[in-house]
Amino acid sequence: xxxxxxxxxxxxxxxxxxxxxxxxxxxxxxxxxxxxxxxxxxxxxxxxxxxxxxxxxxxxxxxxxxxxxxxxxxxxxxxxxxxxxxxxxxxxxxxxxxxxxxxxxxxxxxxxxxxxxxxxxxxxxxxxxxxxxxxxxxxx
Length: 140
Known about the structure:
- The chain is mainly α.
- It is built from eight helices and no strands.
- Helix content is about 65%, strand content about 0%.
- Helix 3 packs across helix 4.
- The protein starts with a helix and ends in a 10-residue tail after the last helix.
């Protein structure tokens, strides 16, 4: 539902996910590439009993899965509501979110605070710099 809505009205992507449609497309390309790398690596180590392609098919496309994760991070609904919005169970929504989070953390850059969290002196400098700025929060 949400992913279809974004495809139909790309100019509303920023309101829904917090990023522009072009940024979403770029992120999807990187995420799909990383997902394929992970799948290939897992398949190479897997001992097969059944032929490849067997088993339950995924309910959501890769784009919908990434969109589900981004929607959760932006809107913070319960997994029950998230599942309803994407047409899956709350367990599927939870599993999908937790699968994609490490991939997105790997693709996207860390925040400034995360980058300096190991160095106390750098952390103090960053905190001092950040106190000089005002934070504006856009909420509904």
